[in-house]
Amino acid sequence: MIEMWDKRYSSSSYAYGINPNAFFKDTLNKYQFKGKILLPAEGEGRNAVFAAKKGLDVTAFDISIEGKNKALKLAKKQNVEIKYDIGNLFDLDIVNQKYDVAALIFAHFPPEISTSYHRKIADLIVDEGIIILEGFSKNHLPLRNKNPRLGGPNKIEMLFSIESIKNDFPEFEIIKLEEVAVELNEGDYHNGLSKVIRFIGKKTKIK
């Protein structure tokens, strides 16, 4: 898995472009979050850099050193600073911090760790903090099989459903949770009409 991502990110071009994901961009512009944001599986940094330009204190992580290198290069070019760690979530100092927001943008983890990652990330969010998620839905797979340029995992167990999001983030009040068809235009690997799950959740304050 690491080798695959390192190979994809080793090109001089940005695999998913340098512009932020549209849903992520619109959500940050609408809610104007403040404080610390965590971006798991952040790849080449397009969303991290946008968040930093919005004034957020950005921490990102991924398994690909090539992704980190590209992200830091992009941040420097855009005159912002981001923190970026490499490795397994549970091995990083990230798990000793708290965050106001976390954004999982096409962060598809292997099925054996997906729920544990989601629940740990949820645990790192402060009371009344926010989770933002966009990822391919299970109903995306038939579309991907017909057109691989759409991108996304080719294993259904790595894809999302409304039910899986409710299961993984039970302590979050649902602000938005929907499955929608969207026209993606993100670099070389996300192109065309795709089906995604979009989620915005607010962590319930513990009384």
Question: What do you see in this structure?
Answer:
Helix content is 31%, strand content 30%. The chain has 207 residues and is α/β, with parallel strands linked by helices. The protein has one domain (2-203): Vaccinia Virus protein VP39 (Rossmann fold). It has a 7-stranded mixed beta sheet. Strand 4 (99-105), helix 5 and strand 5 (125-136) form a beta-alpha-beta unit. Helix 1 (2-9) runs parallel beside helix 4 (65-77). The longest helix is centred in the middle third of the chain and has 13 residues, at 65-77. It starts with a helix and ends with a strand. The mean pLDDT is 97.
Give me some keywords for this one.
31% helix, globular, 207 residues, Rossmann fold, 7 strands, alpha/beta
CATH superfamily: Vaccinia Virus protein VP39
Total count of helical runs of at least 4 residues: 7
Instruction: State the secondary-structure class.
Output: alpha/beta
Q: What's the count of strands?
A: 7
Please name the CATH topology: Rossmann fold
How much of the sequence is in beta strands? 25-35%
Major sheet: arrangement of strands: 3-2-1-4-5-7-6
Mean pLDDT: 97
Helix content: 25-40%
Q: Give the oligomer, counting copies of the same chain as homo and different chains as hetero.
A: single chain
What is the strand and helix layout of this fold?
Elements: H1 2-9, H2 22-31, E1 36-40, H3 46-53, E2 57-62, H4 65-77, E3 83-86, E4 99-105, H5 111-123, E5 125-136, H6 141-146, H7 162-168, E6 172-186, E7 190-203
Parallel strand pairs: 1-2, 1-4, 2-3, 4-5
Antiparallel strand pairs: 5-7, 6-7
Helix pairs in contact: 1-4
